[in-house]
Amino acid sequence: MASRSIIPLRAVEGEQTVRVVAPESGAPHAETAMSAVHGPAPLPANGKQFHIWTIGCQMNEADSAKVASLLQEVGYRQTASEDDADIVVLNSCVVRQSAEDKVAGKLGSLARLKRTRPETRIVLTGCMVTNQQEQLRKRFPHVDLFFDPSDFDRLGLVVPELARLEDDLAALPHYYAPAADGLEPAEGYRKGVTAYVPIIYGCNFLCSYCIVPYRRGRETSRPLAAIVREVERLVADGVREVTLLGQTVNAWGHDFAAKQELVTLLRAVDAIPGLDRLRYLTSHPMYMTDELFDVMADLPTLCEHLNLPVQAGDDTVLHRMRRRYTRDHWLERLQYARSRMPDLTVATDIIVGFPGETEEQFLQTYAMLDQARCEKVHLAMYSPRPGTLSARWEDDIPHAEKHRRHQVLEKLQERIGTEINERRLGSVTEVLVEGKNKGRWSGRSRGNTLVHVDVREDTDLLGKLVDVRITSATPWFLIGEAAGAPR
Ligand code: SF4
What we know:
- The protein is of the alpha/beta class.
- It is built from 13 helices and 22 strands.
- Helix 2 links the parallel strand 6 (87-92) and strand 7.
- Monomer.
């Protein structure tokens, strides 16, 4: 077996340094009032505390957990006593009269609290709030905020630390304005017969660990016509494979006055005569629609490769990363994609040692990767980036522990890579040859796997498409011999 190949590089999506490890109720309404402690271990405090009182179904339980998590993200600590709290949240239920009476009784006791500590913010959410706010305001004037359970953003009205986060996005500049001034920004970079073409700059997501939106601004898409012109020029100049680039490449077109979707651009680029291969990276799981996968499956130039960062396999960690999807969403997207493209290869990104990540949460990531069986995993040990939200939290996982988790996932990926690549022995795969490596020609399959090709010394394969029969497999790359004339 060849020696281990771990390639240092920067993640395209976020700015954590990574190394590639690769081939290369409705439930019964419980009428028990609760002061449960929800969510992950508290993050470094901002000196403020919150208290949540929940009654009702499991949906209310879940909503309360989300409120707790939001407040903990911005440095609040949970307290079991409303008397110590800066914010008291009541999550109400009206499905039975007895539950509604309990909420009313609790609100009455909070009126007394508000008289003695007027600075305490009282918040009411849950079923009692929907469509009744005027009446509620008259009945409970000591409540500072009523919010519908579907509208968590309103919490920012009484939690300035949350409002600031949303303001961060609004304040981000557009660093690129190609559509506005009619100019085309600098072209992508080219290496032999492959080229990278930026199609969207910036990012609107504000993941809690990522500096990209602060450095590169809000999403700004290049116009379709400018991208097509650039690819046409590249193809006329001998480029055979183009990768469309963006931090969230599948948000392309969302910022146009008349919103467009990436599929429109993919169809236009695919139709350029002479282009052999088309790729795009990096995608955000929130924008991976069925239509996008259907188009990938149908367009002949689009390679069967998906770069879909997940970052963690635990929903609490994902929530604190502000990734806006769950583990199940990511897995379901993979399942759909593979149902449309059985040969699809998948790469993903993982951060280990995120603040507060418990061993159980890490093991969820392990189990998810074991289930997902990606061809490639970009692993990063968490490190705080000044200016981001998570940099305000304690970096509480010791470096040695981050390193251990990193190694555990490396080992897992080594096993998965071996299993995947050994199944390719004897198969024939198309390789676009990009150069020579230790006497062998090397290139990438449509699935983006590194393939070394054994041929006679005097054969020049540079820039050619070659069908290669796989004769040897490692966890990180394949070796094979030409099985047909290069083209
Ligand atoms: S989606 Fe998140 S991780 Fe990716 S660039 Fe945007 S803020 Fe960073």
